Amino acid sequence: MSAPTTPLLRVRDLKTYFPIRRGLLRRQVGAVRAVDGLSFDLSAGQTLALVGESGCGKTTVGRSVLRLVEPTAGSIQLEGQELLQLSEKELQPLRQKVQMVFQDPMTSLNPRMRVRQILSEGLKSFGICKNPGELEDRVAAAMSRVQLLPEQLDRFPHEFSGGQRQRIGIARALAVEPQVLICDEAVSALDVSIQAQILNLLSELQEELSLAYLFITHDLSVVRFLAHDVAVMYLGQIVEQAPSTELFAKPEHPYTQGLLAAVPSPDPDQPRVQARVLGDLPSPASPPAGCRFHPRCGQALARCSTDPPLLELKAGREARCWLVDAES
Amino acid sequence: MSEEPVLKVEGLQTSFPLGGKDVPIVDGVSFALHPGRCLALVGESGCGKSMTALSLMRLIPQPGSITGGDIFLEGEGLRSLSVPQMRSLRGKKMGMIFQEPMTSLNPVTRVGEQVIEAIRIHEKVSKRAARARVIEIFRQVGIPDAESRVEAFPHQLSGGLKQRVMIAMALVLKPRVLIADEPTTALDVTIQAQIIELMRELMTETKTAILLITHDLGVVNQIADDIAVMYAGRVIETGSRRRVLKFPQHPYTQGLLGALPGRAERGQRLHEIAGIVPAPVHWPGGCRFRPRCDRAMEVCAESVPTLLPVGLEGSSEANDLELQGEGNHCCACYAVEEPS
User: So what's the ipTM on this one?
Assistant: First the structure.
């Protein structure tokens, strides 16, 4: 967004629906609109955080970008090349450029593989290394890049601590030298002192390698620390998008405001949390008509039962709310 | 604070046989809990905070056992109680909420039925009377449409509602002490905020004493009056919420607070605590935090530092707090100076 050049990753009107099938004939009776018309840009060296609570569709966005789930409609361009038109075979070499780090390093690393195998698998499948010597060098380089010792390459995942396993997950993603890293709750399962180590590592790597991060998380304090831009998701849609500093200084959408008011601060001088978002998340299979947030919004008007557009407030700042429109 | 503590833990030691010998996972933990107040037991995974909670309820999984110290609930020592005596006390005088509402409720029984069962184990009341009480407590903990929700199965409720059912079940017998083990960790922030507000109301309205067990210092700051920080089975710092969060003394507490990303600006490095929490069999002698501490001295390896009162010099705000009776701040560290 801040870079004037073409973004590395350009997503337009992305829709991923999951069919709901019922009965003997498995007829489709509806669809869970997990991602419903999402657009964003991601440039090299930048971090875009996709924030939202469980069920908002943020994980599906990450998986759709990699086509680990098949999007229903929309456009995903990587360096100007459209990904959704490609066959699986044509797509495969491009996967090298976009890699993923998962939440739980215990279940995302094969427990029967040694770290050496885990790290070299990608290099082999993309045919990156010409000879075994080069493979060995690359694997060792990936290991030291995440501050692990090459001596530990012949160990199994269970021999590492949680933080170290997450480093292995990052090393695996980085081994094939991607440009975009999709981090899905990559630090959420870690204790704070370990989380700090991984967050520092991620910022160093970004600076060094000019990586673009699509950082998917529910943790707003992590977002504030790491992200340049933030997109807040609610029931499959972006409700607000803004540069990180602006979003935290002045959230426009009532949902963002409620989300920020709900984050418990450890500082005794800060105000205590307020529960401003009412009730529970509705089912994404039948989202409320109009503004999807209005049944839980403390400021809802009659007008909110019609769908508000995602309105540009100024460059790089958008919000999907009738109230925001009324003010400006 | 002048009231007698409702729960007093003295030198609690809980051990597990590991590698051929008994290893104390909880090692000499002491604290007192007063009516209507909340004490937070804080620490990272593996520090022994959950095992402390289970020890209080005498629900330690096999083959562990309490090997030292005692627990006093309203003056009564719990270690000497028989199993049936302990069973009649659990739930009645001391309730517990667990982290995972999804796995703590029986999936094939209606939630109302589960709470009714809890009542009828302890009190001779009719099903009808029990049911009326369940509906009432469901309303109190903010479950909308309580009459029909008692008929729901756990899978029909959201995570937030399930946690409210758990809280209702723990509170329906009006226990003096509520042990809440990571009560909001599995919830989304907006739902967590609702539960935090509920717990604050309960404390003021019912005078229930809460032992909050969590790793989340943000949540601690919302609910707790006092804090005890645990590391590797021991309490290493205690004090009022303000004292510990604003003027942490122990290098570990300082490290924990410094590692929180919410306090840092982008581009800044977060404070890291070097290394990892060692497994109990590898706990070092002396101060257990020593291998990860940048202020470690020779004496830290030789003997175990005890919890001693700390003085705060040079800070006027700290002195003000001291005057307000918040001065009960203790720390187990040789590098921290004692008040003269």
Answer: 0.84
